Every structure is written in structure tokens, then in C-alpha cells.
Known about the structure:
The structure is a homodimer. By secondary structure, the first copy, chain A, is mainly α. Chain A is about 65% helix and about 0% strand. Chain A has ten helices and no strands. At the A-B interface, helix 2, helix 7, helix 8, helix 9 and helix 10 of A face helix 2, helix 7, helix 8, helix 9 and helix 10 of B.
Amino acid sequence: MSTAGKVAEGKAAEDQRRPGRPRSEEADRAIIKATRELFAESGADALCIEKVAARAGVGKSTIYRRWPGKEDLLLAAIASMQAPLPEPRGRSVREDLRALLDALTEQSADPARAREFALLLGEGSRYPRLMDRYTQTWVEPRRDVIRSVLRRGVVTGELREDTDVEAALFMLVGSVMARSRYGDPVGPGHAERVVDCLMAGLAAR
Amino acid sequence: MSTAGKVAEGKAAEDQRRPGRPRSEEADRAIIKATRELFAESGADALCIEKVAARAGVGKSTIYRRWPGKEDLLLAAIASMQAPLPEPRGRSVREDLRALLDALTEQSADPARAREFALLLGEGSRYPRLMDRYTQTWVEPRRDVIRSVLRRGVVTGELREDTDVEAALFMLVGSVMARSRYGDPVGPGHAERVVDCLMAGLAAR
DNA sequence: CAATAACGATACGACCACGTATCGTATCGT
DNA sequence: ACGATACGATACGTGGTCGTATCGTTATTG
């Protein structure tokens, strides 16, 4: 039915036009919020639909009406965790890296985000679709921000010409990962120390 | 077989002296082996006693006779994963760090060991006893090896006097963690590149 | 008002894993 | 031989989770 000639209005309009009670956007939000919370608290494996429904104050059917299963729900929840890195100001590599690493550090203090690392490292093999999409959507774009700061530093002459961008990248983000773990949050001075240490190098003059 | 009671074993001898059929050491080995394999394949949450028993060719009771439950079994399995870092040769910091990082890299290619990271970062909060013991038994001693190499470098003058040992440590081990993930093993040249990059520093002269 | 679809609640069957209990059998010390 | 204990196998009860189905109710369109 419908299909209508009013093509110009797009699919959304068509959805709205469906007869019957419309889906509750509030339920959408509550479900995603509950999913994120439970994922943060217990991880992907321990997350279960019935607890999500209970916390969201929603019936199970309301969830299954929207997502076919658990993995798809998790996918939606993770996709909704927006955590943009700050735009580099471009005044100096040192300043930009500090700001980026500070942001990373702060974000990794959030249990939900710490779970993402775990998902990536461990549980990922059990949820391949989820992990692929997560990597593609979040990990690489964020790495690219750091890469571009480093590359620009090389161009401006602030960094060595033979800078190994990839090695530096993994040391920077890795320093946060290696440090953040349950009960041992990374302190605020971490970013500054790491950037200074890496910029100066270990070797004596 | 069973080497008899002859040795001056103390308590062990007393255990041996118990009447009845002695516990099978082969069953011990098979159980631990199966546990490690399943942990490597699927992680801590997916590991279940019944599959361990099946793979080990052992009855469930044989497992429960030895360990009170799943967590204790995992603890024993992880404790049995010996993975010593090589002894630093002490000729140069650069050489020692390369060797240590190469070893770390190679070990992290093992799925079982990759799971350890995940355990540390994510699932750890669900198995606090397990994680505490793991950290204390494996993580810190291994970090200490790297710390001592760095400190010695400062003493010998190979490294800057104001070297930030902790920052360098987390960059080194973190570079491996950030890179190793399911389906994206760290290449063999990684250690060399990282160490060179860190030693030289990013800043232009 | 009638048709339609989403709502919360809840019951259902299937499955899986836990940890316990009980088989008959095998292997030890005495 | 005998008692003791471990062995593999298997059945059991419990509890949790999945995904489906079915309530009566509520909101929206026409």
C-alpha cells in the first residue's frame, strides 16, 4: 500500500505515515541508554536482553521489534557512543598531541569505553561483525587524527624528517591502553609526560 | 611409576601416603591444557567446565575434585602459562629493549595470551581475584624487567638523566597492546621500529 | 468510531552451564 | 583379599537467557 507518489518527502515521511501507534522515541533512547550502562558494567557477554528491558522500563517485545537480536542491539549502542577527539589547534605538535592524549585518557576512564578495548582485544572474535564495524567507525578515524598531526609536524619541520609515524602512533595510544585497567585509572599528568618523553627521546645527547 | 615416596618431600609425601587410588597427574595436565585451549579460543566467559571435561577426556567430577569452581580452574590455568621474558644481555639498552619487545610481540601472537590482555582490561572486573593474582604474578614482574633496563641505561649514561621511566615503559608495552588484536598480529619489525623511534625522539634537532 | 500497530507484561519451550550426587570400575596401600 | 580413593559417565535440580507468542491496553490515522 501507500508507496505514494509523494516521493520527494523521502522515506522518513513514509514511515511517519504508517497507520497505527507510532514507535516511541523515548523507548528508543531508554533502550540504548540501558544497553550502554549494562555493557559498561558487565561486558558484552553478560549483557542480556531481559535486563536491558527491565532497566529501560520496557517490554522485551519492544526491543525485539527494533533489533533482531543481541548483537545488533550492541552494535547500535556502541555506534551511539560518540566520543570525538578534539580538533587539533595546529599551533604545535606538542600541544596537539597533549590535547589528544588527554582526551583519550579521560575517555578511557569511562568504564563503557574501557570495555571497548576489551571487546577489541578479546571478545571481538566472538562478535566479528560488531568488531569490524567498531574498528572501521571509531578506531581508524581516531588514529587518523593523530597521524595527521604527526605528518603535519614533519612538514613544518617540528618533527624529524624520518619520523616513524606508525610507531609513534602506537606508542601514544598504547601508553593509555597499557595503563588503563580496572581500578587503576590513568592520572591526569600522563599525557604530558608521555608526549614530552617521546618528543625528547630516550637517548642521551 | 609414581616415583615412590622415597624423597624427603615433607607435606607432599604425606599427600602421597593417603590410602586409595592416587590422583592422576595425567588428568591434571589434560585438564589444564584443555582449559588453556578453550580460554584461548573463546575467553573466560565462554569457558565452561563441561567442555573442558570433554576435551580433556575426563569426567566433571575429576575437575571438581581438584578445584572448587570455574574461577579457580582458570586461575590455575593462567598461572601455568609461563612466559618469561628473556634475560637482558646488558650490552646496550637498545639491544635489550628490542629483545624484550620482540619477546612480548611474539607472545602476544598467541591467542591465549591475547586473552590475558582482554581479561585485564575488560572481563577483569567480573573476576577480581583472578585478575589481582594475575597482575601480581605476571604483569608487574615483567614490567620490572623493562624498568630495570631503562634505569641501568640512565646509570650508564646511555639514556638521558631525566628519563621518565614510567612513561617510556607504558609506551613500549602499550605499543604492542595497541597493535595486537584479533586478525591483526604485530609484525616482526615492530619492536625495532618502536625502540628506534623512542630512543631518537620525535623532535627535530 | 474503526482499523492498525506499538506498548508493557508475561508465559512458553528450548537450550546451556552450573555444581551435586550416584553409578560401576580401576588402582592404589596394607 | 580388602578398604579406600580416584576414575569416567551420567542423571539431576537450579537458574539464567534466548527468541517467540499472546495477552489486554494505548496511541494515532482516517
